[in-house]
Amino acid sequence: MSNDMNGKSPLPIDESQIDRILQSTWEHAARINPNLLAKLRVDYQFKRLRKLIKDCLERGLSEAETHDHTLQELLRSAGANRQPQDTCADAPMLIGSQGASS
After folding, report:
1. Predicted confidence (pLDDT) at residue 2 exceeds the cutoff of 50
2. Are 55 and 36 in contact (CB under 8 A)?
C-alpha cells in the first residue's frame, strides 16, 4: 500500500465537487479556445470527463491538478475530434512532474 496520501484514507468523491471541477474546466477551455469547443462532436461524452475527474481525485490528485489534467484532455480530445479518456491513467506522471519542478 504505497499510496502517497500522507496516511489519510481517501474521502468519498462528492458529485458537487465533480460538477465544480467540470464547470471551471469548461469555462477555462472556453477562454483558451472557444472555437474549438464550438466544434465539439455532437455526441461528445461529458460522462467520460466526469469519470476522468472522479478517477483523478480517487488517485489523490488535488482539485487544481485534476482541473489541469481535465482541461488538457478536453482540449486534446476536442482538437483530435475524439471522445475523451475516462481514466486518469497518467496521474502518477502528473504527480511526479509537480515535485520535479520545485
Report:
1. no
2. no
